[in-house]
Protein 1
Amino acid sequence: MVIFITGISSGFGLETARVLSQEGHAVYGTVRRDVAPLPQVKYLRLDVRDAKAVQQAVQQIIEAESRIDVLVNNAGMGIGGPLEFATEEEIREQMDANFMGLVHCVDAVLPYMRKQGSGKIIALSSIGGLMGLPFQGFYSASKFAIEGYCEALRLETKPFGITVTVIRPGDFSTGFTDSRKKATNDEAFRAYPAYQKAIEKVEHDETGGLKPQIVAHKISKVVRMKHPRYGYVVSSFEQRLSVFLKQILPAKWFAAILGKYYNSK
Ligand SMILES: NC(=O)c1ccc[n+]([C@@H]2O[C@H](COP(=O)([O-])OP(=O)(O)OC[C@H]3O[C@@H](n4cnc5c(N)ncnc54)[C@H](OP(=O)(O)O)[C@@H]3O)[C@@H](O)[C@H]2O)c1
């Protein structure tokens, strides 16, 4: 299959490109910087916020392969801090990279997938796309946007034989933690005493989190499935439980549990 993956310089993208190329697929992956290349993988240099660059990259794939079977929309980043202290620029980067990046990639591949009468769109959401995480509010907002968009996309593209799947990882140990852009000004810590503890907890959970290969193998499974499910939570048991509790508990109870979790060591 011909597979287009965004953000393969590290983490899930890197491991997914590795697994899928080893399985014999034609893998095209995007990077923004020089990386040690994986054998068999073809690299495209772009920032997903640039719609034109994404269109050109997909055009390049079509010229070489005449088709595109799978989009794995993985590229993303996070900002951290009290919502009140995020700057307009930071918020735009968050939404542009995570949400508009997906829109750019989907817009670029859809005309070809519709014409083929087949295709798979796999989007990296997050457990944070199912619940608003304190001090990662704009990150959550970008993933909630992905969830709403993909739910609609799934219905619109079904008649063309295209499937849409969202992968919702919990905490994983990747480059994501180090590249998070955090509010570091004293005022943010002074005004929100809970911020320090919460961000330490988040980073502790991520760095001690699961290995990104688990997500890569889940994506490879979805690629192989004829009828993949719409959504998969890939996480520890506790995090899967939190998703379940969010669905069944009154909002007030769930908020109390989540608040307590991020306010404890
Ligand atoms: N790690 C977790 O615990 C976790 C949990 C849930 C969901 N996720 C999601 O999983 C996806 C992958 O994250 P990861 O954990 O593998 O983190 P990662 O190791 O930091 O990888 C992120 C990748 O996205 C690329 N990227 C970021 N912004 C980009 C942009 N504007 N244009 C093009 N590429 C861009 C990065 O490229 P550079 O190297 O150039 O920055 C990198 O290749 C993200 O969508 C993230 O939100 C992660």
Note: Strands lie at 2-5, 26-31, 42-45, 70-73, 79-80, 119-124, 162-169, 181-182, 231-234.
Protein 2
Amino acid sequence: MKLYFAPMEGITDVIFRQVFQAQFGGVDKYFMPFVSPSSSLSYTVRQDFELSPEQNRGFFAVPQILAKDPLCFLGAARGFADSGYTEVNLNLGCPSGTVTGKGKGSGMLRDVDGLKRFLDQVYGNSPLPVSIKTRIGFDSPAEWEKLLPVFAVYPIHELIIHPRTRGQLYRGTPYRETFARATETLTCPLVYNGDLFTVQDVQQVQAMFPAASGLMLGRGALTNPALLREIRGGAPLAMEDLIRYHDRLYYAYMKTWKPLTAVGRMHVFVKYLSHSLDVPAKYVRQAMKETQPEAYLDAVAEMFRRAQVKDVPCYSQQEYAMPAFRQDP
Ligand SMILES: Cc1cc2nc3c(=O)[nH]c(=O)nc-3n(C[C@H](O)[C@H](O)[C@H](O)COP(=O)(O)O)c2cc1C
């Protein structure tokens, strides 16, 4: 079974991909966080860096496009084909209000006829195979039954299903039964995504959906960067893994970005990694409070000194909230 790293805007950028690949690897494909091409198809300097084939060498990276205008999608796909990419992904899942308000991302699931017209153009003209990452509906899981016949008629390279509605964001129980419906109805390769936080979660989903061709992991692998290794039968997460990984990320960001921006990004990683640690809350909070490089490094070193890796590192469902750490005795 293939294992994919989920695209996570503001987190799984190219620096992350390089560091993760060098230390852990084991990822069949990294899906890049979305780009939303304008009609001029021009990118910012940072996007150019992010998308550059040179920076994405040594691993399989798939650019993701967020667009509702088929011409924008196709123009971006042509650019990716010209730079040597071999596949692109369409974002039908983004739940953000600013995105869905423009009828993009999961907003496209609301208008089934519009979606068909868009996919006719895309699949009729794309220079590259197009995979799709989708939710199962906008307001209700019942919408899935209307979406399945749409997906059935296109040569979808891979359909990655996050079985939540837009309204659920990344919370609440995924409607796993909708994935089963897809395995009954569709013939394209199907990839399951959502709440795979432990080896046990993965084994459960593999047993439920033997027809799935792959699994995509996001928050689980950010929390426990050794999770894919463990799934493949390797060693569980150790403290040395975490410290080395943290330091590699930190110095890679410091080399490329301004110090304050780099430390800001590291706070995001610390937030996820802290779910893997048994550590008094105050040490995590301190690390996430420090904005100056030296003070930040001291605080992180103290956090790791006071911490132990949990027996079963696991992302906590409290998305965007600090986890409930145990208090100092
Ligand atoms: C902060 C954040 C950013 C995300 N950015 C993207 C994105 O750019 N494109 C996308 O398709 N999904 C994006 N997602 C959704 C993830 O790819 C994934 O579907 C979601 O986290 C559920 O998988 P998980 O339970 O394994 O984390 C994002 C999720 C989060 C939490």
Note: Confidence is low (pLDDT under 50) at residues 319-329.
